[in-house]
Task: inverse folding
């Protein structure tokens, strides 16, 4: 077919109908750019659009293909038509031969076009989605009307896909009518016991669907099955958003819809509070003035309409919905319950999974010099900071090349600082820094150096009973050896556990206990060979608690692994009995 001839014919028919390119495009649920390309001879419509195009322009498909009104001869299927004519010659003498001929040819056209349509459908709608690239089309799929139903259909066709999953991330670029142009969908998959199995990814663009089957990403993050992020629930709430109307009112250059689990919107931020009923679209000024609602800082299920895939974009509308499972804590997939955050020269702490943040008074220069001292790290040294879920306990952290301890007794409103030791006193740089509190007034610190041939190694502990005003210095065992300081955890002012590096078996540390505030230490003896195979190494101590007459000790893998080993002992000196393993999140940069 001559594409230029076809384009001119479309122009002729469109103008006869009094339609603009945009109006024709809207009737076909496509873009005006596609119509423009047809008319300029740069492209040809998909075969699935021919019937709709012919109906809108009030011609039949044969006339459309031949670019001439009244010409019903289809040059693309001439061979089939010739064969049909031979068959029809036998009945030419019948009274209604002309009518029969037209009906027969039309029937052949319909059958052949149906055959091509089926062939097209099978090509772009495979029965099975395989790992890697798939030829696939979702057609004119309207997200506001259909939610994520098409994505569910794709998931059900995917090879090796697990039956239990929740959304980790969803983003779609829509046209002005709310139809999906591209999308990205990431899922967390689980077995029937809700044990995490791996991440699944889908990316769709230009009739190509890229699928990554369940893969364990081995990130240092514990993934929980989140009912609030089930694809059925997110699909249902997306259908409640007036997507097309809001985008039309907003006049965004690009129309993105984005969902991320466990999104916390700061208190006082304008939102569309769908928890109080469906909201009508608002212009940007009314939205920013809070006419759609104001965040109470307790958000969790949030859908964003934005002009950019960047979720920090200023031009965006945030729709807040009710949770269906309040047992899932805020941001469990991204941080610990007690954690910290570094951004643009500021340091903040949280004790509630990031629901609220506590500011520190450290300057950008002080923070930068601290991170530089930690070998240009993006995070604080392990164990060099302390914050508890108990808001009555102090917050504390070390900063600077000379370890300066910052302490807040009033939840970050005011800060005091003290310097307990200098590199001159220790004979080397003090790189090992540990701080903690067992009550508001009782705290502990451990400081140590790395081991070197020239300077050896030095480590001390310090105790306070007066909110950190004064500190008592105490020697630690195996001083000036290669058993450098790793961690210290006190249960109270008398009882605690010390972790030192073990150069004989680098996968498991040396463990010492005290019951007299560090005046004496006794090595804990127990066999690492009795541990399950999944425990490849242990590094530091997470906590000491007490149940009845027994102490419960949790050892962890530092900032390199999420696996925890739980032990029970009567007095910390008697043999430690392994109980079980568990997984908990660790601090991750970003």
Result:
């Amino acid at each position: 077919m001559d594409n230029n001839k076809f384009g001119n014919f479309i122009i002729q028919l469109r103008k006869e109908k009094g339609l603009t390119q945009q109006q024709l495009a809207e009737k076909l649920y496509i873009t005006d750019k596609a119509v423009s390309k047809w008319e300029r001879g740069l492209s040809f419509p998909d075969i699935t659009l021919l019937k709709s195009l012919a109906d809108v322009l009030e011609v039949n498909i044969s006339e459309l293909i031949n670019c001439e009104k009244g010409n019903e001869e289809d040059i693309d299927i001439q061979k089939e038509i010739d064969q049909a004519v031979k068959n029809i010659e036998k009945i030419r003498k019948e009274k209604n031969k002309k009518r029969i001929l037209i009906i027969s040819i039309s029937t052949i056209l319909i059958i052949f076009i149906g055959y091509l349509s089926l062939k097209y459908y099978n090509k772009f709608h495979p029965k099975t989605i395989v790992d890697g690239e798939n030829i696939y089309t979702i057609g004119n799929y309207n997200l506001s009307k259909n939610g994520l139903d098409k994505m569910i259909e794709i998931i059900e066709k995917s090879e090796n896909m697990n039956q239990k999953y929740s959304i980790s991330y969803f983003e779609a670029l829509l046209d002005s009518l709310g139809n999906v142009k591209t999308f990205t969908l990431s899922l967390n998959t689980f077995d029937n016991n809700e044990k995490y199995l791996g991440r699944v990814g889908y990316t769709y663009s230009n009739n190509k669907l890229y699928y990554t089957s369940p893969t364990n990403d081995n990130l240092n993050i514990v993934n929980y099955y989140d009912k609030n992020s089930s694809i059925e629930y997110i699909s249902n709430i997306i259908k409640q958003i007036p997507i097309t109307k809001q985008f039309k009112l907003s006049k965004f250059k690009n129309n993105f819809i984005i969902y991320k689990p466990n999104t916390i919107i700061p208190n006082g931020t304008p939102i569309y509070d769908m928890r109080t009923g469906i909201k009508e679209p608002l212009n940007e000024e009314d939205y920013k003035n809070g006419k759609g609602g104001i965040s109470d800082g307790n958000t969790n299920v949030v859908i964003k309409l934005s002009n950019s895939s960047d979720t920090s974009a200023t031009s965006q509308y945030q729709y807040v919905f009710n949770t269906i499972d309040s047992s899932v804590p805020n941001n469990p997939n991204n941080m610990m319950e007690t954690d910290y955050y570094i951004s643009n020269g500021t340091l903040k702490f949280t004790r509630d999974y990031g629901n609220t943040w506590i500011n520190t008074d450290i300057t950008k220069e002080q923070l930068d010099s601290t991170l530089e001292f930690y070998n240009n790290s993006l995070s604080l040294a392990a164990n060099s900071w302390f914050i508890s879920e108990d808001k009555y306990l102090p917050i504390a952290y070390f900063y600077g090349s000379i370890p300066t301890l910052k302490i807040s007794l009033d939840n970050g409103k005011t800060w005091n600082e003290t310097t307990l030791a200098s590199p001159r006193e220790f004979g080397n740089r003090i790189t090992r820094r540990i701080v903690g509190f067992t009550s508001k007034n009782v705290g502990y610190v451990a400081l140590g150096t790395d081991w070197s041939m020239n300077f050896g190694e030095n480590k001390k502990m310090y105790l306070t009973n007066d909110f950190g005003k004064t500190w008592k210095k105490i020697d630690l065992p195996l001083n000036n050896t290669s058993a450098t300081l790793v961690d210290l955890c006190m249960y109270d002012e008398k009882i605690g556990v010390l972790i030192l590096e073990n150069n004989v078996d680098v996968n498991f540390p040396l463990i010492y206990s005290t019951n007299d505030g560090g005046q004496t230490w006794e090595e804990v003896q127990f066999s690492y060979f009795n541990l399950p195979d999944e425990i490849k190494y242990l590094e530091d101590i997470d906590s000491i608690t007490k149940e009845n007459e027994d102490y419960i000790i949790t050892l962890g893998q530092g900032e390199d692994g999420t696996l925890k080993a739980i032990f029970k002992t009567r007095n910390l000196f008697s043999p430690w009995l392994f109980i079980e393993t568990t997984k908990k999140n660790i601090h991750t940069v970003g």
Notes: The mean pLDDT is 85. The longest helix spans residues 97-124. The CA atoms of residues 51 and 61 lie 6 Å apart. The two ends are 56 Å apart (CA to CA).
